[in-house]
Amino acid sequence: MVWLFILLWPLLGVKPEGLEIAGTFNVWWRIALGCSFILFLYQLNKAGAFKFISRPVSAVAGSMKSASSVVPLAVWFVIGIGCVALLPQLTGRYAQDVAINCMIYVCLGLGLNVVVGLAGMLDLGYIAFYGIGAYTYAILSVQFQLSFWICLPISAAAAGLGAWLIGYCSMRMRGDYLAIVTLGFAEICRMVLNNWMSLTNGPNGITGIKAPGFYWFDFTNGMTLEHLWLKKLSLVYYVILLLVVFTIIAVYRLQHSRIGRAWEAIREDETAAEVMGVPTFYMKLLAYCTGACFGGLAGAFYAARMRFVSPESFTFLESAMVLSMVVLGGMGSIPGVILGALALIALPEIFREFELYRMLVFGGVMTLMMLFRPQGLLPPTRKMRAGKD
Length: 389
Known about the structure:
two-stranded antiparallel sheet, 17 helices, cell membrane
């Protein structure tokens, strides 16, 4: 944390415009808040993050009493959710837009973390499933007038189906060969979106996509149901927050299940896992499809948020960005992926006025991270304990 602060200190003398929090906080307060949030994630990781989700209340209470030096996880969880939920009430439109963008990438990073961090498969074309989910909702919304909440699982299923089609043919490959196949699949998807004029409107994209909405009781003329569109950014913020919470819980439950242990066995040694009876082909295919479903969910929300999609939003650079978040935060770590998304999305926005210098600092920090902490900022707790043992 100290060397990161030293690298960034020349940037702290000027207050960038647009990211005001209630009009009173300057850059120093933002750095302090960012460091506090990093320490918050570190405490979660140190204490066994999110274990209260699946453990009985009595077990959690016992662990809290035994760990007197660590703040109880329930308190951390309530504080974290409360701060994130209050963000739209304390910030302006620009900060809300940055926060929404960060949470979209958190969903993408957690989905790719299933493939790369848990199952150990290098996927360079993950952004293809993001595009499949976005275009699925765009087509269903514009041509069939379907609701966002109905299209959300359909978009996830469409992305999972695309992953099954390519994964069934390529999951027996390993290493660089699998990475090349996934990269080729992403380029094929982008070319199809760019050239299928009758369905995707080609490079012009699809416009007129409906925003999320919900039904509310109207008592003006009796009791009727009225459909309300969530067009305010502060309301859309809570939709992606709901998706992020769902993704975190789902990934955590998968990671600490028998399926998750099978994925980790494949990641450590695929041959040994197959000898021990793990169906490696089907488990790898399941991981690939599961990660794609989370990408499809994020893509559907992206289409609803922007109300416009085009092939330019789903290039290889986006895949590289999501993969960088997973590697930087710590492969297999949920808090690490969240921290990686914040580092690669929020920090460049804070230092937008220093565009050239901020990319220099970003490249230097990434290089130092890979040299001195290749396991990531917040590696998984199980890995850390294994290393100590």
